[in-house]
Amino acid sequence: MTLSTLDQVEDLVVAAGLDRDALSLIVSEALGEDLGGRGVLPPGTSRGIDVTSYATIGPDATARGEFVARRPGVVAGLPVAAYVVAVVCAPAGPFAVELQVADGDEVAVGDVLISVSGNARALLTAERVALNLLTLMSGTATATAAWAAALAGTRARVRDSRKTVPGLRMLQKYAVRVGGGVNHRMCLSDQALIKDNHVIAAGGVVPAFLAVRSAFPDLHVQVEVTSAQQARDVVGAGARDILLDNMSPAEMAAIVAELGDRATWEASGGLSLASAAVVAHTGVDFIAVGAITHSAPLLDIALDLVT
Predict the structure, then answer these.
(1) Are residues 300 and 249 part of one domain?
(2) Residues 9-63: pLDDT tens digits?
(3) Do 267 and 252 form a contact (C-beta atoms < 8 A)?
(4) Both 127 and 160 in a single domain?
């Protein structure tokens, strides 16, 4: 798929299920950080330009480049990288972006992910922001895919949390979906999650649940519990989404067996890939893994200019 206008790239972003306006803000801030200003600023001073490319490359020089995988993994964020290239290159003249693979594909060392062409200064200006986002998202997708593989054959799905890079939650949660995981809440207002501090403040898990249900009767509520009795009490009060926090597999299996389909069950706390299958076989529906967003290694990808 070859794209040669910003509108075409924006359509690709929207087709991926990403918010175009939110992405525009993310990219503008990232470019501003890289260029010492806000967004893409006109040349003329050292502020707002890539001074090295400006000094070493003529204004009308063009170049071709390839985004190449340096490590194997699951790629995510190709529309985002394409958007960065388009935003920077479109004002500088004709450009082209060709996706060689698709988000969710497993790639090997040396695989070309995206081919690009356009103004040489602009391509090199866009390089780092495009790679920062692409490597982060691909790292998240790769880590998620490893968990999804470990849970294969069970009913459990790996689910993310709000433990994301500030400002990049939309992109990381997209990458989780690409990697085969599912998303938890996006923010504090779209779903209630009653945790230990809420329980302490409210005077108990049931009072906390009833308080949320009274204040927001139509909102989805998940309740974190740390014991079988808490689970019994809050399910008896009407809770239907329970997070089992820092429990052993035996404890989780017993609770799920006792209360069964009266609730949806999520395991959280102290989990690892090595124990994933054991936890999944307790019968839980989800396994919460903050590490897929807060600790996933970046997937090494580079932009190489080609002759």
Answers:
(1) no
(2) 999 999 999 999 999 999 988 988 888 765 454 544 445 788 889 899 999 999 9
(3) yes
(4) no
Domain identity same for 276 and 300: no
Q: Is 221 a residue whose pLDDT tops 80?
A: yes
Q: Are residues 287 and 301 in the same domain?
A: no
Q: How far apart (Å, rounded) are the C-alpha atoms in residues 194 and 180?
A: 26
What mean pLDDT is predicted for residues 135-144?
A: 98
CA distance 22 to 26: 6
Q: pTM score > 0.85 for this model?
A: yes
Structural domains counted in the chain = 2
Q: Are residues 80 and 97 in the same domain?
A: yes
Residue 104 is given by DSSP the state T
Q: Which domain holds residue 266?
A: 148-294
Tell me how far apart the alpha carbons of residues 294 and 143 are, in angstroms, rounded to a whole number: 11
Residue-averaged pLDDT of the chain? 94
Q: Are 159 and 151 in contact (CB under 8 A)?
A: no
DSSP secondary structure, 236-279, as one string: HTT--EEEEES--HHHHHHHHHHHGGGSEEEEESS--GGGHHHH
Residues 126 and 262 in one domain: no
Could you give the residue numbers annotated as active site? Answer: 128, 163, 195, 224, 245
**Does residue 119 share a domain with residue 169?**
no
User: Rounded to an integer, what distance in angstroms lies between the CA atom of residue 178 and that of residue 137?
Assistant: 9
Whole-angstrom distance, CA of residue 74 vs CA of residue 96: 24
- Among residues 271, 301, 292, the alpha carbon closest in space to that of 143 is found at 292
Specify whether 104 is located in the same domain as 37: yes
DSSP H helices in 151-267: 169-178, 196-202, 205-215, 228-236, 249-259
Query: Residues, the chain, total?
Result: 307
